[in-house]
Specification:
Layout (H helix, E strand, L loop, with lengths): L1 E10 L2 E11 L15 H8 L7 E6 L2 E2 L2
Antiparallel strand pairs: 1-2, 1-3, 3-4
């Protein structure tokens, strides 16, 4: 299971992702819905560690990643 708690990402004075908390169960398929520019791709990049989060706790298989 992947648990993401309090994910936040900010670029200068612009808050892009604001304190998102969610969990993903193995074997299920998930989708993200939102308007253009709402931070969907940024959120996925944060989970994949392609960009560094401003704040977060990510747990994968009961081991803290951040």
């Amino acid at each position: 299971m992947l648990i993401a708690q309090d994910i936040g990402y900010q670029i200068q004075d612009t808050l892009v992702v604001n304190h998102v908390t969610t969990q993903f169960q193995p074997g299920l398929v998930y989708g993200i819905v939102g308007h253009n520019g709402s931070g969907k791709s940024t959120f996925i990049k944060l989970l994949a560690e392609q960009i560094a989060a401003t704040s977060c706790v990510i747990t994968f298989d009961e081991k803290n990643r951040f």
